[in-house]
Design a protein that fits this description.
22% of the residues lie in helices and 33% in strands. The protein is of the alpha+beta class. The protein has two domains: 33 residues; 86 residues, Copper binding periplasmic protein CusF (OB fold (Dihydrolipoamide Acetyltransferase, E2P)), CATH 2.40.50.
Length: 129
Amino acid sequence: MNSIHKLIPSLCLTALIALPVAASGSTSPSARAGGSEGLDPSEVTASAKLTVRRVENEPDRLYLYDPSSEKTHVVVLSEKTKLTARRKKDFDGRRKLQFSDLEAGQTLKVTYRTDDGQITSIQVLEKAS
């Protein structure tokens, strides 16, 4: 009985350490909860912090710089891509944005599907300086 009481705090500590590791992944909740069986590949996403180099309106095209790879990526957004601001105060109290709100120099969090690279959402982290 005494050894069980010593084991319980150790198990609790292990669970507390493992929880943030599992939560920090960028997979969908169903992938974390149930493993890979029944997982739709289009639900698995990843994200990257990128800087806008240039914006073109026809079509809605962005030139995004990735400082980790030192490469510029050209991306055409679809109508389904969600655009949001991290802080409302940066865009006159608006959180939901339009393509016209994007400009060179902004730092973005770009979330995309890992199976086909389709961008699902963009969040403006920092306005252009």
